[in-house]
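Model: You mentioned two targets. I'll fold them one after the other.
Researcher: Yes, keep them separate.
Model: Target one:
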Amino acid sequence: KRHTMRLSEVVRGRRGVQLIRLRDGSYGVQFATFSGRSGRAIRCTPELWLAGVRSRGTEIDEIPANTVEAMELYHSFSTTPFQFSPETISNQRCGTIVIWTRIPGGR
């Protein structure tokens, strides 16, 4: 709907989302989570799942926006569906981004 090739443009301005500029000029996503003790925002990189497969080291701008059918943002471990939960709890506070791609030859 936004006629963009960068997925970062789709999430820009969303509450709790910060875009960070990468060396190659594209953007990565960080979520802001709030520490109950200090009350300050902590920025961390969410887990990324692409078409149901965990994609470590992939940034959203590496995925052409015109191939994406849907994108789900889960800002914390407690809101992330079980099938997309990390195997370890070390990254649980960072949340998850799930991206579903279009079926080749589809719409």
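Model: Target two:
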Amino acid sequence: RNSWLRNDPSPVVFIQGGPGGASGLDSLTMTWWFADIETWDLGRDFVLYDQRGSGLAKPSLRCPEVLSGIRRDLQLALDLHEENERYIGHLRACYDRLHDEKQRLDDYSTELNSNDLADIINLVEPGPWTLFGASYGTRIALETERRYPQLVRDLVLDSVYPHDKDGFLSWPMVLGRSVDRVLESRGRPDLKPRLASLMEQFSKEPLQLESGQYSSGEALAPVLTGSRLFMMLFAATYSSDMAGSIVPVIEELSTGQAGSPMLAGLASFAIELELDESFSEPVFQSISCREDRIEQTEAYRMQAERHAGDNAILRDMLIQQTPAEACSFWKSGNVSAAFSEPVVTQKPVLLLAGELDAVTPVQWAREMHGYLPASRLVVVPGGGHGVSVTDSCTMLIARAFLADPSAPLPSRCSGDG
């Protein structure tokens, strides 16, 4: 609650991404939330909730089979085919257990998440709210505007995931352009062939990294293969701080240096993301397999060939590890063709985007800005994914926008990280 007399009657609700991301209602993360809310000083009641299946929601769906399998596999020198086969096996074991427990995996979708949000608004404080979505959460916010416009006052959308963008068909572009975009922004596109050579090298002779302690409490001694090197760099693009290490790490590895603190930092960051126990793999798979156009395999392959370029291992990663493989057994229903139509509104919308965001590229925000007449777009130079939690100036701009959507706003943040 915001107790100031100037409190605006419209609450702000934060909608987490994923699909399957927890909002952070646990006691540790809530201390950070309270600090952020006080710093932002939005003058509004602020609402956090866990989407169905995630975080502290009941049931809260997890895949311990996948996490324990990945912990073992990361310490083995597996080729791309072996690693993919083992991952699919872990995922199938999780699916079979959930099926045996009679969990209804068709109970998870963007439309149902939108219904839940409408219920929360009507139960807590009926009336128009500000919807503050991040990543996949922006899709829930937009779906709520489409289905329940009377409950929406305005929107703050960080790292937009529009309805007309498809997670399956965009994956080759998302993965294939992720590291290239960072190298180009640093003026080092010459490192692209060097990275491809390193991936070939580590595929033939995997590199044993030093053992490290992770948040799970378990010590791991990861092995770096060619595909894992690329996925480590891809993970770094989520954070502007981590992305700054991509160029020097490629240069170090090219000269035979394999024990630098920067390499260890990137490996640790990537592994922590992969082993995030708060993330709901079942929710992610259920919504992705339901809403992505996984039947368009030829269109996917064409995109994979295009974005892999001359990098043979990247091409194999895209084609051998296609997201549609899990959906061959992970059955969770379908959506109507109308679901993929863009959501258009006349209401004020603040779009926040990271210049180097690989997961939800800044171009998606620019396109949305073009068809939302009352939208404002702010780009963070060098920013990654989810800039509202990594760049303080975005929330200063959001506060000004929420106070007066027509007020002059800068179109770029300072990139203060």
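Researcher: Noted. Anything on target two?
Model: The radius of gyration is 21 Å.
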